[in-house]
Amino acid sequence: MVVFFLFMMMPRVMGTDYDLAILWVEYKKWIVSFLTGDLGMSSYYRVPVSMILREKMTNTLVLGIVSLLITYVLSFFMGRYAGRNPNTMGDRLISGLNYTGLSLPLIVVSVYSIYFFSFELNWFPSNGSVDITVPEGTWEYWLDRVHHLILPATVLGIVGTATYTQFLRDDIVENSRKEFVRTAKSIGLSEKRIYNVHILKNSLIPIVTFLGIDLVNIVNGAIIVETIFTYPGIGQLFIKSINMRDHAMVMNLTMMFSTIMIIGNMISDILYGMVDPRIKLE
To answer: Is 110 a residue whose pLDDT tops 80?
Structure first.
């Protein structure tokens, strides 16, 4: 519908007599080419779009997977601790960190991380994915890639941690007050078993379903993080393609982002039906 609306409005906006039938035929031709893997030629790089995307997609996938691991590991341990120890000093400290993280935009965290950890402490590189002076394929090459990956992945992962930590903490506290917990205590189950088997298991159900949405968040976050860190992924490629008016690249990346969003929401629905027996997939 959006594409059809744009096609209908294009003659009025641009002030020329476009033949909508020709536009529609060209659009269908482009869709067929996209689905068959023919993504066209990049007007800026002068090579097939698919060749550029394969190279950049690998970097973005590695960045996204590592950042997701950081998000889920930190969220699990901090949310579990805060949920089991509500209203304690540790819980208040974690909540303070969470609210601070929620209030800070990703772009601000990225800029200050580069300034502090790259320029002041000189612990991590401030840009790129690998030093061009390191021979490719060597052990030093892979170590250098990891070294370049740590800071952007940590920034992207920590920013997402605040939401999940607070969500898991509140869910554990809420579940600990429910009837099934009192029943488990009355039949003599240990405190550890009640938390690990009953409360924590039920509290993790909503977190698991966020995995599909995280696929979308990876792309959104990668556009900002990769641009600031000049990390060569599809996020930075998207911004650069817009600036360079590389229409073939922009069109394919936009379609890719839309596809990822649809697949991510579909995965969320499927996971919710799998982890929660009350939900039936039909």
So the answer is: yes
Return d(Cα 62, Cα 171) in angstroms, integer: 30
Contact between residue 57 and residue 227 where contact means Cβ atoms under 8 Å apart: no
DSSP state of 274: H
Q: Rounded CA gap, 267 and 38, in Å?
A: 27
87 phi and psi angles, rounded to 5 deg: 65, 20
pLDDT band at 14 (very low <50, low <70, confident <90, very high): very low
* CA dist., res. 174 & res. 224, Å (int): 35
- Give the whole-angstrom CA distance, residue 265 versus residue 242: 26
pLDDT one-digit tens code per residue, 62-73: 888 888 888 888
Residue 48, strand partner residues: 41
Structure tokens at 207: 């977190």
Q: Residue 104: its pLDDT value, please?
A: 79
**What is this structure's pTM?**
0.74
Q: String of b and e for 235-250 (b: at least 16 CB within 10 Å)?
A: bbbbebbeeeebebbb
Query: For residue 149, which of 256, 270, 61 has the smallest C-alpha distance?
Result: 61
Question: What DSSP letter does each residue of 112-161 carry, written as one string?
Answer: HHIIIIIIIS--S-SS-SS-TTSPTTSHHHHHHHHHHHHHHHHHHHHHHH
pLDDT band at 25 (very low <50, low <70, confident <90, very high): confident
Per-domain residue ranges of the chain: 44-275
CB 211 within 8 A of CB 260: no
May I ask the CATH architecture of the domain 44-275?
A: Orthogonal Bundle (1.10)
- 151 touches 59 (CB < 8 A): no
Please report the pLDDT score of residue 13 as a whole number. Answer: 44
